[in-house]
Every structure is written in structure tokens, then in C-alpha cells.
Amino acid sequence: MDRRTFIHQAALAGIAAQLPCSANADTPHSQFNRNSTAEQVTAGLNLAGKTAVVTGCNSGIGFETMRVLALRGAHVIGTARTLDKGKEACGKISGKTTPVVLELTDFDSVVACANTIRNMNVSIDMLILNAGIILDDWQQVNGIEKQFVVNHLGHFILTQRLLDRVISAEQGRVVVVGSGNHRDAPQGGIQFNDLSGRNWYRRGYAHSKLANGLYSLELSQRLSKTRATSNCLSPGPVDTNIRRDLPASATPANLKSPAQGAATVCYVAAHPTLKQVNGEYFSDCNPAPQSAHQTDRAMSAKLWQVSTELTRHHLT
Ligand SMILES: NC(=O)c1ccc[n+]([C@@H]2O[C@H](COP(=O)([O-])OP(=O)(O)OC[C@H]3O[C@@H](n4cnc5c(N)ncnc54)[C@H](OP(=O)(O)O)[C@@H]3O)[C@@H](O)[C@H]2O)c1
């Protein structure tokens, strides 16, 4: 191939990576929409006897998710960065909740959190990876861009250490809270050759959310011979604390309320029609298109391998 043809084909490949991929035609659609709330999408469900883990339970989408799953009868293990924050959040709602400390930048804390949950000796019906940050500047944890660490790597360790408990549930679900923003990830997708973030930190949030989607995809493949599933979702733009460190101009108009933002999370975590749905991506309680990067099996497999290497001292 001559140089010109190569550049042309490479450019086309780059464009193709940004094109949306449609949802699987077999995935059930719902009558719910952007305005549906978490209470509406779980109306009539009895989650008594079920156990959910919700990371980041003290704020925004995580708090509302915990509140509504507990309202429907589930025991919700809610994680927060301090026990005081977790206790305060759990104390505000009715139903069965248990606060546990989880600081995702500190992998020892992630291991301790997983061990605390394991010691409860329960199967996990819903493992909801919700906690997350958006940064406006370049920050690192041990040389790795911080949003990748918090939003992806910490959750990777937590899930790996709890996965047998999800698999042992009647129909365990891993629910990864991603974002439509995954489409704005740096060109080429996950920056395996330089995870420091130095050259792409301005797209670091989108990069971490792409990692969420790819992790869910790879996990879904690995769960395919079990009863358990893994799906990813975008809650849409929601009025929460997540933009607290960003300039006001970075806040989109027409935000959802947390009650609306938690709807897709609760729908994917608990709705019976999704029992056999695995490896899908949802928005507004329906299957949704995603970027070609987020459906790239080679990239998801590599992310798994690299994440395993980066966290190997905390996986077993
Ligand atoms: N809001 C949106 O518009 C939007 C859009 C798309 C996707 N999402 C996703 O939705 C999820 C929930 O976000 P939200 O909007 O509800 O934001 P939020 O109100 O800021 O809640 C984020 C939660 O994550 C926790 N958290 C932050 N850093 C952590 C760390 N290092 N270790 C452990 N927990 C940590 C927070 O704890 P503290 O309160 O102690 O900081 C809080 O409980 C995130 O994954 C986000 O990417 C949100």
C-alpha cells in the first residue's frame, strides 16, 4: 500500500471509530423515557431478599438509586468515602441500608471495602458502579490520570473481588454507570501507550467513561456462560454535584433531576424484562447507540489486560 492510500484509509478508520453503532435489535424496548423517574420504572417491583451494592451512595444519582432500591425492598450496601457520609446518607432514607467506606483512589480501601462486603456472606443481585468524578485539570494517582483511576480502575478491582458473589446470585447484574460523553474520548480511544493523561487530560472524563463502557462489554463476554450480566448506561445530563469543580459555563442546559437521572440505573439494575440482556448500552431506559470505540472488542480485551496488570497487587 502506498503512503497516500495508507493515510486515506487511516483517516477513514478514524472517522469510522467516531460513528455511532446501533443497539442490538433483540434488546427489549420500554415505554419509559427521558422524563421517567426511578420510582416510576420500579413501580410494582418487589426487591425483598435482593442485595444491591451502590458506589457513591451519598450524592446525586447514587443516593437516589439507593433510596429507590431500598424503597422497593432491597438491602442496599451503599459506599461513601467516609463512614460519616455513608451513615448520613443511609440515615436519610427508609428501608434496609448498610454504609461501607470506599475511596477509589486508594486501592487498599477498595480491597477493604470488598472484604467488608464479602464478610456479609450475601450474594449480590445488583452491583452498581456509580461513583465518579469530572476534573477540570490534570491530576494523577501514582502516575495515572485520576479520572481513569477513580471511574475505572478502582471499580475494576472492586468488581473483580466481588464477582463470584454476583455470579452466585439468582440473576446477578453488574451495572456500569457510563456516559454519552464516552464519544468525546481522545482519538484512538483508550490511551494505552500513555495513561499519565499529560496529552489528553482535557478529554480525561470521556476517556474514563469509554473505559466504563469497554469494561462492561468485556465483562459481559466473560459472564456469557453464567446467569449474571453486565450492562452499561448513560444517565443523561443530571443536576448533581459532579460539576462542582467546573466553571458554570460547563453545565449543560435542561438537566434531568436526580430522580430522572437514577431511572435508567434502576431500570437496568432491577427490571425483569432485562433478565437475559448482557453487554448492552442504555440511555433513557432504552437501548442506545454508542461509539464504535465502545463496541471495539479488541480494545475491550486490551483494557482488561492492561487493567489487570495495573491493579495486580490488589486483585487477589
Ligand atoms: N450528573 C451527570 O450529568 C452525569 C452524566 C453522565 C454520567 N454521570 C455519571 O453518573 C455517576 C454519578 O455521578 P453524579 O452525577 O451522581 O455525581 P455526584 O453527585 O458528584 O456523585 C458522585 C459520587 O461519587 C463519589 N466519589 C467521587 N470520588 C470518589 C472517590 N475517589 N472514591 C469513592 N467515591 C467517590 C462521590 O463522593 P463525594 O460526595 O464524597 O465526593 C459521590 O458519592 C458518575 O459515574 C458520573 O460519571 C453523571
How would you explain this protein's 3D organization?
It is globular, with a radius of gyration of 19 Å. The protein has helices spanning 3-18, 38-41, 60-71, 83-91, 107-118, 146-167, 204-222, 258-270, 297-310; strands at residues 20-21, 51-55, 75-80, 97-101, 126-129, 140-141, 144-145, 173-177, 229-234, 281-283, 286-287, 290-291. The strands form three sheets. Strands 4-3-2-5-8-9-10-11 form an eight-stranded mixed beta sheet, with helices on both faces. The chain is built from nine helices and twelve strands. The protein starts with a helix and ends in a 6-residue tail after the last helix. Mean pLDDT is 94; it is low at 1-18. Helix 5 packs parallel to helix 6 and helix 6 (146-167) packs parallel to helix 7 (204-222).
> How many structural domains does the protein architecture include?
1
User: Which compounds are bound in this model?
Assistant: NADP nicotinamide-adenine-dinucleotide phosphate
CATH topology name, in short, is Rossmann fold
The CATH homologous superfamily is named NAD(P)-binding Rossmann-like Domain
Low-confidence sequence ranges: 1-18
End-to-end Cα distance, whole Å, is: 47 Å
The ordered string of helix (H) and strand (E) elements is HEHEHEHEHEEEHEHEHEEEH
Biggest sheet, in brief? 8 strands, mixed
Beta content comes to 5-15%
Helix proportion? 25-40%
Number of helices: 9
Task: Tally the beta strands.
Answer: 12
Indicate the multimeric state.
single chain
Average of per-residue pLDDT values: 94
Name the CATH architecture.
3-Layer(aba) Sandwich
- What is the overall shape? globular
Over all CA atoms, what is the radius of gyration? 19 Å
